[in-house]
Amino acid sequence: MGEDIPVPEVAPPGVNINVPHSARIYDYWLGGKDNFAVDRAVGDAMIKAIPGMRYMAAENRKFVHRVARDLVATEQIHQFLDVGTGIPTRPNLHEIAQRTEPGARVVYVDNDPIVLVHARALMISTDQGRSEYISADLRAPESILNDKVLRDTLDLGRPVGLTLIAILMLIADEDDPWSKVDALRDAMPSGSLLAITHPTADFAPDEVNEAVAAATSAGMTLVARPEADIRRFFGDWELLEPGLVPVSNWRPDEPVDNPQAAYYWAGVARKP
């Protein structure tokens, strides 16, 4: 009998299948198929360190859905800027928002070419609303804010829902992620809302530190931050109830047995 010949992995132009990428690892954890062997290897190493990693990824997505729903229905936010989108998983933020407000507008931002490929196929808006994608990097906030598509899609004279979901962990302290977020916050009008999730070692330091080591050894930047450092990202904006809390405990749809089982802090704050 002949041996099975491995099928070579094929990627879109600009995608390096030999270097792990956070968006594709996250896709793997969520059960997606838009990832490569190198991503699965790192993803498995992190699952070995944190057996609940897939649960944590799912809790992050549930938070995005609750935020989109509540900000539209309760806070009358009808436009969103989602930075660090990742590979689309349905329902997407704009689909949740447009269920309540069909005219809602969303601009997604990411810097991975594979995200762009899927964004064009999956981020289809209602006729009344609009959903757009731009290729830009949080490390250069002006590249986001000055993008023509963003300016054509969002009205920066009206409140915006700015979402930074599991993205700030990818910027090292020495690269000052706080100043990057400051630039985005400063560009938002009064009444805007900022939603953040961020991994932490506060709840399970040994597991998280082992997972960070696995990512770092693969050449990735991954920073788990304590509550105080995450709180700084909100600046002087006012945290909505229930404040900065474990991600599962931000306005859950049903009681959560162990909120600290997902090692993320999460919160939403309003610009005065």
Helical content (DSSP H or I, runs of 4+): 25-40%
Low-confidence stretches: none
What general outline do the C-alpha atoms trace?
A: globular
Radius of gyration: 18 Å
Which secondary-structure class do the elements indicate? alpha/beta
Along the chain, the helix and strand elements come as HHHEHEHEHHEHEHHEEE
What is the distance, rounded to the nearest whole angstrom, between the alpha carbons of the first and last residues?
71 Å
Average residue-wise pLDDT: 92
Name the beta content range.
5-15%
Number of strands: 8
Largest sheet composition = 8 strands, mixed
Task: Please count the helical segments.
Answer: 10
Task: Please write out the topology.
Layout: H1 22-29, H2 37-49, H3 53-73, E1 79-83, H4 93-100, E2 105-110, H5 113-122, E3 130-135, H6 141-145, H7 148-153, E4 161-165, H8 177-187, E5 193-199, H9 205-217, H10 227-231, E6 238-239, E7 245-246, E8 264-270
Parallel strand pairs: 1-2, 1-4, 2-3, 4-5
Antiparallel strand pairs: 5-8, 6-8, 7-8
Explained architecture:
This protein is of the alpha/beta class and 272 residues long. It has helices at residues 22-29, 37-49, 53-73, 93-100, 113-122, 141-145, 148-153, 177-187, 205-217, 227-231, and strands spanning 79-83, 105-110, 130-135, 161-165, 193-199, 238-239, 245-246, 264-270. Helix 1 (22-29) packs across helix 2 (37-49) and helix 2 (37-49) runs antiparallel to helix 9. It is globular.
Summarize the structure.
The chain is of the alpha/beta class. Helices cover 37% and strands 15% of the residues.
